Amino acid sequence: MAEVIGNRYPQMITLLSDFGESDVYVGVMKGVIARIDRAISIIDLTHQIPPQDIAAARFALMNAYPYFPPGTVHIAVVDPGVGGSRRGVAVELAGGYLVGPDNGLFSGVLSQFPVIAAVELTNSNYWRTPQPSNTFHGRDIFAPVGAHLAGGVNLSELGDAIAPSSLVQFPLPSYSLTNAGATGCIQYVDRFGNLITNIPATLVEGKNWSVRAGKLNIPSCNIYSDRPLGSPLSLVGSHGWVEIAINGGNAKSQLNLACLDVVQVILEL
Fold it and tell me: pTM of the full predicted structure?
């Protein structure tokens, strides 16, 4: 049975990174967490984020966060600035905590959930070592901090308070309404090559619509198989955003579109 800490059990931790599966980095982080508290449950969100792709990490974490129990600690490490001037942070939100580099990867979650408090991770008493590696803060700072947080340490003990408004935002353009519908961009490409835009489903619900990307006009449908094999289509994905896909194909390669490319939703009268 898990040890009760104060009035509660150790919380759950999720891990997200671009470390892949061929190296020991993920396993080492889990080992660091276990040395602090073996009772903590750990769930891997993904370790297949493309290397240094903060935009993909932002989207993946934003879409995973709402599905976890209150109090879950989400450790995310996609950190091209490791060892540099970027801050390490821990953030308390309604429903959980975020731990990782302050480089914009948390901005998707922050856009949907109010921040209660945030700290810069300056208290080395909660690090694995006061002299962390310049290349592996996931092991030496973020994993141990997350474990202590999940085990009951107060956020305020982890470092100096910072203004929530100072947390770095990823420079993803916001969608905007137009006379014809809305203009947005592609915010994520999944492993199937589906192109997820930043235009929310609420804009198209109950309406006839299509997507314009470059010179293409892409009809909307309800499911992938509504269109012939090999045909482009647009629909609302399970994540709640307008998506561009190809039935049985890869929209990224076949339509030559990528993250941050501009798209338009056209609402039909």
Answer: 0.92
